[in-house]
Amino acid sequence: MWGVEGISRTLSFKDISGPLVKAVSLKTDKPDKPAGWKDLNGMGKLGVLEVDPSLNAHEIHLKYRVREYMKRKMEIENIEGSLQDFAKGYEKFGFNREGNCIVYKEWAPVAEAAQLIGEFNNWDGSKHNMEKDQFGVWSIRLSDEGGKSVIPHGSKVKFRMKKDDGTWVDRIPAWIKYAVVDPTVFAAYYDGVYWDPPSADKYHFKHSRPDKPSAPLIYEAHVGMSSKEPRVNSYREFADEVLPRIKANNYNTIQLMAIMEHAYYGCFGYHVTNFFAASSRSGTPEDLKYLIDKAHAMGLRVLMDVVHSHASTNAEDGLAGYDIGQKAEDSYFRTGARGYHSLWDSRLFSYGNWEVQRFLLSNLRWWMEEYMFDGFRFDGITSMLYHHHGIGMSFTGNYHEYFSEATDVEAVMYMMLANDLVHSIYPDATVIAEDVSGMPTLCRPVSEGGIGFDYRLAMGIPDKWIQYLTKKKEEEWSMGDIVYTLVNRRYREPCVGYAESHDQSIVGDNTYAWLLMDKEMYFGMSIEQPISLIVERGIALHKMIHFITMALGGEGYLNFMGNEFGHPEWIDFPRQGNNWSFDKCRRQWDLADQAHLRYKFMNNFNRTMIGLEEEFQFVGSNKQYISCTSESEKLIVFERGDLVFVFNWHPTTTYSGLKVGCEIPGKYRICLDSDAAEFGGHARLDHEVEHFTSPEGEPGKPETNYNNRPHSFMVMAPSRSCQVSKPFLAFPFIIHLLYTMFKTCYCLCYLKQGSLFPTYNWFA
């Protein structure tokens, strides 16, 4: 018999989200306590404790971090007016026009002197000395001459400062909006660019943000490597050539990587040098706006992969250059070993510093308002959450690992402020956290005492698939283990599931298609030749792995560019080790477009499975029930939303007359079948057949039902395939209501007469 796991994630608890504590204006005699501040005793019960009572043992820690967040927010409101105004630092710092003047400001509190230099003054700053205020901010005002800006649009600029030893160093302005590098000079440093195009040359957005979907179906993309040719692709080419592909494949959200300027292309965009500058490799700021606006026109939301967990160590052309040996309170970064990530070779922010918070919060608002991004994916926040940065840690789920002196409360406070800000600017924003530790409360609202993210990436799922694909024979795959991995997530903390992202595609790893088919992908993908057993198995499992991950792995789904059609090989950015080759730093879109290649089968299936969500909205559904996990038969059966899913992982056995449990009575019809011919299968199922349900068990005794389901129907389950059946009722709600009323009468008659009516199929 099949094992009945009976895993249900139907949410029936009362939603207790609400204000944590109202910020009232209080008079205080202590200057270190701003108006509205309350101590732990006056805070009241945190909402996160209602959601997870196990957190009660750590209430003091949770209230402490909430207090730090509230205290800092109220300080900001008292001094800056509001958190939203505080996050408009780009209107004060960097280059801004005020009437007929350009005003430039830079925070460099330990500099002895400062100058503005650039092409406009032939890099001679002697006539453009800057003045310093009591907060360590240097400024200069440059009046227009002859009705024209002293600094021409598009000209190069830098900030020159004098160190305490008397030496001068040149740096790119910290708030620079654009930076370029001379492509003809090897290992050249970037230069800042004054970006202020005339109105006629500015891109003006024409389309509003798309509505927030019930579940984000995310297409993770890297603009630079999106060309089918061995070169860096442009924003406009991506918009015109790649966006239509994404839309055609039914995704509703794009996650753009490597947007923030990074000097080293091979870092995948994660060693950021210039936080407010869009990467110039792919075009200008106006080109990026064109891309995002075109995505919005197609109904696609756009998320940005934001990197606030660390910064590049580059001094000459990066933010790290502003650290010239000062104390932590005068720097963007922590000092000593605390300010350096040993594994990433990068600098770590001092998240408790006022100006650091202004810089990072303003960075978020800048990308949302200037470029109309719809949200963010926060990279590497495990490093932010803990002083040990997760290095050498193997998290077990013990709550003491999350709430102790190892927790970086300053960083947690910053993330709470960040999520508060983003959702106050745009309530429908989507903010996703990349965390491998499993930090509780990460995806609960700030108002409940949570950190405030909307989703977390379900990072354990790809690890499990890689383990199975590389270390286990197919007959050793455990159905229960697969299901447990997919559904093992915190209650009421939404996840974005994914089978493989860019991490699984980078050099050193392999895509699942490559792990499944290896060199067969080079010469065994033509439909004009007989299919090999390796390719047949690979395509079948590729479809099943991605689909069950989407169907069970979270409340959202993510796919990396090209994996939808089984893009071969791995990603290898141009570097000295590969002779600066772009050969494996591109996307071979033509593989999916060629009618004679089998890549089209995986692409067709991916398009259809993603499209299934638009019709039935099951990914975001709280209704989820696993009715069967059979190790011997290699079967997994579950319901998500109103759909019934059957996965037969057995490599050779097809089950005829397989009994499948369900909740909704009536008749069912197949709406997705991985074995269909259009998906490269054997077309063993008839999609026109209607499957009628039969009642199960004794009325009033759920334990007597079939696999804990009140109804069942029969299906055929071909080997190495999956199928989805939908209830096929003209008025499902009314019929379901009538059925419930009828069953109630049935039970009453049984109790009164002690006999049962004959069992038959009511809907035949």
UniProtKB/TrEMBL annotation:
E.C. numbers: 2.4.1.18
Pfam families given in the database record: Alpha-amylase (PF00128), Alpha-amylase_C (PF02806), CBM_48 (PF02922)
SMART domains to which the protein is assigned, alphabetical: Aamy
SUPFAM superfamilies: (Trans)glycosidases, E set domains, Glycosyl hydrolase domain
Annotated pathway: Glycan biosynthesis
InterPro entries per UniProt: A-amylase/branching_C (IPR006048), Branching_enzy (IPR037439), GH (IPR017853), GH13_cat_dom (IPR006047), Glyco_hydro_13_N (IPR004193), Glyco_hydro_b (IPR013780), Ig-like_fold (IPR013783), Ig_E-set (IPR014756)
Domain Glycosyl hydrolase family 13 catalytic residue range list: 238-598
Catalytic reaction equation(s): Transfers a segment of a (1->4)-alpha-D-glucan chain to a primary hydroxy group in a similar glucan chain
GO cellular component: amyloplast
Keywords assigned by UniProt, alphabetized: Amyloplast, Plastid, Transferase
GO BP of this protein: glycogen biosynthetic process
Enzyme class: transferase
Positions of the catalytic residues: D379, E434
Gene3D superfamilies linked: Glycosidases (3.20.20.80), Golgi alpha-mannosidase II (2.60.40.1180), Immunoglobulins (2.60.40.10)
GO molecular-function term, one example from the UniProt record: hydrolase activity, hydrolyzing O-glycosyl compounds
Localization in the cell: Plastid, Amyloplast
Family: Belongs to the glycosyl hydrolase 13 family. GlgB subfamily.
Subunit structure: Monomer.
Name recorded for this polypeptide: 1,4-alpha-glucan branching enzyme
Upper classification of the organism: Eukaryota, Viridiplantae, Streptophyta, Embryophyta, Bryophyta
